[in-house]
Design goal:
Elements lengths: L1 E8 L5 H17 L3 E8 L6 E8 L2 H8 L3 H10 L8 E6 L1
Antiparallel strand pairs: 1-3, 1-4, 2-3
Helix pairs in contact: 1-3
């Protein structure tokens, strides 16, 4: 099992857009082969910072299959205009 952690810093005033858009992102992730969970948490000590977490069966389910899919492209399309900088993605074995 792989835990994907994505630290997202949104542009000022875009936090609500990320939170409301996460329903679509979560649905796309959970429909992807190998993804079993997805959640979004707001930082309590860093304004406009969020942690998106997803659980994948294999690293390749995220980095190859999902990343190269239409669903992966749609997630990027939703996220990119909201981000103040490139999200930081880290994968963990769990």
């Amino acid at each position: 099992m792989i835990a994907e952690h994505v630290e997202i810093r949104v542009r000022e005033g875009c936090a609500g857009d990320l939170e409301s858009g996460f329903d679509e992102i979560r649905a796309l992730l959970l429909a992807a082969p190998g993804c079993s969970d997805a959640a979004l948490a707001a930082s309590v000590d860093r304004q406009d910072t969020y942690l998106l977490t997803a659980r994948w069966e294999r690293l390749e389910d995220h980095t190859e299959t999902f990343a190269g899919s239409a669903s992966g492209a749609r997630v990027r399309q939703v996220l990119e205009p909201l981000c103040a900088e490139m999200p930081r993605v880290t994968h963990y074995r769990c």
